[in-house]
Amino acid sequence: MKILLISDQEDPFLWDYYKPGRLAPYDLILSAGDLKPSYLRFLVTMARAPLFYVHGNHDVCYETDVPEGCDCVDGRFTVCQGLRILAFGGCMWYNGKPFQYTEKQMERQIRKTRRAVRRAGGVDIILTHAPPRGFGDGDDPAHRGFECFTHLIEEYHPKYFIHGHQHLNYSSFSKRIHQCGETTIVNACGRYELEVTLARP
After folding, report:
1. Is 101 helix (H, G, I), strand (E, B) or coil?
2. Which residues contact 86 (CB under 8 A, 6 or more apart)?
3. Which of 36, 145, 165, 181 is 20 to 30 A off residue 99, Cα-Cα?
4. What is the number of other CB atoms lying within 10 angstroms of the CB of residue 72?
């Protein structure tokens, strides 16, 4: 299964300089937030694949300018083509605007999904806007990762943890890929291609 990961920065290769058929190889598009609604609408229109998204901390515009044709999976557990996806938008609280959460608020969101995860027998991908604490996040309040996301990785051992929020040009030490045990953590900033093979029957 080939997945296109996107977040935070609209990629000219997929928009301004798009060529027909460029999105044809993808079975699924996952947006980790902070992208223009018009960009998401364009991609889902040109692709022959579903587009799932979570809210970034700057996505208040989604409330009035909805990315039609795309599926908001924020705060939900969903299954697509056999792929089990758990998703949470927003970032750590820093100035009280929408889509900002304290650790306790995010933990409450996570608790609401636990029954669905148990019934499905686990999670393959966790999709978030903010990173897990200690893996590619920042030290400032706005870009600090959630500790409860790190605990989720340790509990569920998903194959992939996909996030955005931390732009790769924020620091010369920024890395796109981190590893936490069995889980590969991917910063989706801009665009990134992922090939996923489900090991279970």
Report:
1. strand
2. 76, 77, 113, 117, 123, 125, 126, 127, 152, 156, 158
3. 181
4. 17
Contacts of 9-18 with C-beta under 8 Å, sequence gap 24+, read 9/35, 9/167, 9/189, 9/190, 10/35, 10/36, 10/39, 11/190, 11/191, 13/191, 14/43, 14/191, 15/39, 15/42, 15/43, 18/42, 18/46
The list of the chain residues with pLDDT below 50 reads: none
Distance CA 200, CA 42 (A): 34
Judge whether 195 and 38 are in contact, CB under 8 Å.
Answer: no
CATH 3.60.21.10, domain 2-195, yes or no: yes
Instruction: Tell me the per-residue pLDDT of 120-160, one tens digit each, with 9 for 90 and over.
Output: 999 999 999 999 999 988 888 889 999 999 999 999 999 99
The residue assigned the tokens 């400032």 is: 140
What residues does 160 pair with on adjacent strands?
Answer: 125, 184
- Amino acid identity of residue 29, one-letter, is I
8 Å CB contact between 143 and 171 = no
Number of residues assigned to the chain:
201
Distance CA 31, CA 163 (A): 9
3-state secondary structure of 81: coil
| Segments making up each domain of the chain, as ranges | 2-195
Question: What is the C-alpha separation between 86 and 123, in angstroms, rounded?
Answer: 7
Does the pTM surpass 0.85? The reply is yes
